[in-house]
Automatic annotation (TrEMBL):
Residues 53-147 form the Methyltransferase type domain. InterPro entries: Methyltransf_11, SAM-dependent_MTases_sf. Pfam families: Methyltransf_11. It comes from Streptomyces labedae. Coiled coil: none annotated. This is Methyltransferase type 11 domain-containing protein.
Length: 232
């Protein structure tokens, strides 16, 4: 009988494992939003942040790239396996802090604010947006940037959907992800108070099939007081 696991930590512990013993850190030469090297925009989507938080950082490639350029970066991941490897790889990058935890729980307990919060095929894709987006907004500085990307999903899949993987001994693993077209992501961001929202699907390069959904949003410079009306 096929055994199934719906343990997100177990799922992400199995992501890109070191199959032949500890691997050396990769050479990171660019900030990438897609799975295709050199395809699409780069770190300019974050503006010029002094501080940044990455949600679902896994190997912390982009976090390390930013930190080496003077940004104080906190990188968060759910998996202790990913966190241990990233800390080993980037221990000599002083501007990078790598934390272990679930995105919503971390944001509730965090007392810092950030100029940018971002996620690259990471936790934003795998967390209920109506729970996550308000927490992100609370941790952003006024005018701060919230940007994320994830793989293009079939149009018939919307909302919460299972994603499947294979674990040890043929065990089937699942993790929930939230599938929305760009226009729905834009509506969700607007609903939670973000402005200047741009959501699009970047087509894949020639010869590849899977595009990348990229969403950019910003927190207003000043909080809007919904209770105040025009003065007579």
């Amino acid at each position: 009988m096929l055994r199934t696991s719906h343990d997100p930590v177990f799922f992400w512990d199995r992501y890109k494992p070191d199959r032949d013993g500890p691997a050396p850190p990769p050479e990171v030469t660019a900030f990438e939003w897609t799975q295709y090297e050199g395809h699409g925009p780069g770190a300019e989507l974050l503006g010029r942040p002094r501080t940044a938080l990455e949600l679902g950082a896994a190997e912390c490639r982009e976090a390390s790239w930013l930190a080496r350029r003077g940004v104080r970066v906190t990188a968060l991941d759910l998996s202790p396996v990913q966190v241990e490897r990233a800390r080993r790889w980037w221990k000599d990058v002083p501007a990078l802090t790598i934390e272990e935890g679930e995105a919503c729980s971390f944001l509730r307990g965090d007392d810092q604010t950030y100029d940018a919060v971002y996620s690259i095929w990471g936790a934003v894709w795998f967390t209920a947006p109506d729970e996550l987006f308000p927490l992100v907004a609370k941790r952003l500085s006024p005018g701060g940037v919230f940007t994320f990307s994830h793989g293009e999903t079939p149009q018939h899949l919307t909302g919460r959907q299972p994603m499947y993987g294979k674990g040890p001994e043929g065990r089937e693993m699942t993790v929930d992800r939230w599938c929305h077209p760009p226009e729905t992501w834009a509506d969700i961001a607007h609903k939670h108070g973000f402005v200047d929202v741009e959501a699009r699907c970047l087509p894949a390069p020639t010869g590849q099939a899977l595009g990348t959904i990229i969403v950019e949003a910003r927190l207003p410079e000043q909080a809007v007081d919904a209770t105040s009306g025009p003065r007579g």
